[in-house]
Amino acid sequence: MASPITTINPATGETLATYDLMTDAEAREAVERCHAAFEAWRQEPLEARAKVISAIGQALRDSKEDFARLMTDEVGKLIGDSRQEIELCAAICDYTASAGPKELADEEREIQGGTGVITHAPIGVIYGIQPWNFPCYQAVRYTIANLMAGNGVLLKHAANCTGSGLFLRDVMDKAGLPQGLFSVLVIDHDQSNAIIAHELVRGVTLTGSDGAGKIVAEQAAKHLKKTVLELGSNDAYIVLDDADLDMAVETCVAGRIFNNGQTCVNAKRFVVTEKNYDTFVERFTEKMRAIEMGDPYDDATGLGPMSRDDLRDKLDDQVRKSVDNGARVLCGGEVPNRKGAWYPATVLVDVAPGQPAYEDELFGPVASVIRARDDEDAMRIANDSRYGLGGGIFSRDAERARKLASQHFDTGMVSINGYNIAMPNMPFGGVKDSGYGREHGGYGMKEFVNVKSLYMA
């Protein structure tokens, strides 16, 4: 029998809870229950689905403090960030309930000899495999869109936030979502492959590493099932010659440290032109050095722990390999002698191709600062990545920055003179090794629907 899942508080190393894995039969039964619930749910009018989704948003707000504390215990998020995450998830429900009926409404077009009707029909059970860095949001963002579309939803959450997945299920049940329509599968990777292959599962979505995305996409492709993949990034924030340096420094620090540095759209590479490089590095390093690690429940804490010891150790290894290949550490860069998955705010300079700090995603509070000759060279360096999820541009000429972002920046999202995570009414997703498909902004509701054409003579 497979070993149970044990969740650990990364700030203290203490055991939180233990969960038995489902048997194969229990997992199959969960899929069948979800499909049965879908068969009834798909018949519900769009307005009726929206009403339940609105109720889920309110239920999230009602349980905000308990849910936030559970997330902080399981993955080490600062308690303020956990509360904000619940509010974001509730806002996603609000937006979806409001915009969903219009986004998914039938469309009519004139055709020869009659009227063409385009419907957005739900396709069935959608299986989501989600990571630990946003225990509520990662699950909510694909679940709510698919529930609005009329689909059923399965969730395999990361093992270290199993409790959060089950808590979300209970929130949805209390809000009036039909039993089984959103089901949490407490399973391992081998069982997950069987779920992907299950004939009642019609689509698969994953948020995770590009390596995991390739594996899941291959498994789904064997069974001709559509996938949506959000696969992390190495987001570049470009400081152009005419940037407001005060704004750039403040924003870049916040963008690197948000969520303890463990966000796919964290600012990670900082590409700074020769004109501003020395001043930026000095000010940026000073602020990063001043960030203190501490109790994630203390509102004054600047940086909490990473989510697991093994993730911290991987980050430390990436920093060491980068230094071995020519990078320099200006602050941080050493694992502190304390219990828990701690790593300090770190700044690396002399970052160059061939180093993990340049090539790979550093999923933790480590900033890679790269010198560019000029604005054109900065854009070249920003695009010199296998990833393409988000990024940013700092310039006093907002219209020029907008043109650069829209025509030259090879990413799915660009922040201009700011830093943004996700907004319910704006599409979220990337290109290249950051994956494909979109969530939010109405687009996520249509990723797993049958766009059906009716020809009315």
From TrEMBL:
Statement: the UniProt record of this protein carries the keyword NADP: yes
Entry keyword Transmembrane helix: no
Residue stretches making up the Aldehyde dehydrogenase domain: 5-453
Pfam families linked to this entry: Aldedh (PF00171)
GO molecular function: aldehyde dehydrogenase [NAD(P)+] activity; succinate-semialdehyde dehydrogenase (NAD+) activity
Key words of the record: NADP, Oxidoreductase
Family: Belongs to the aldehyde dehydrogenase family.
Protein name in UniProt: Succinate-semialdehyde dehydrogenase
Lineage: Bacteria, Pseudomonadati, Pseudomonadota, Alphaproteobacteria, Rhodobacterales
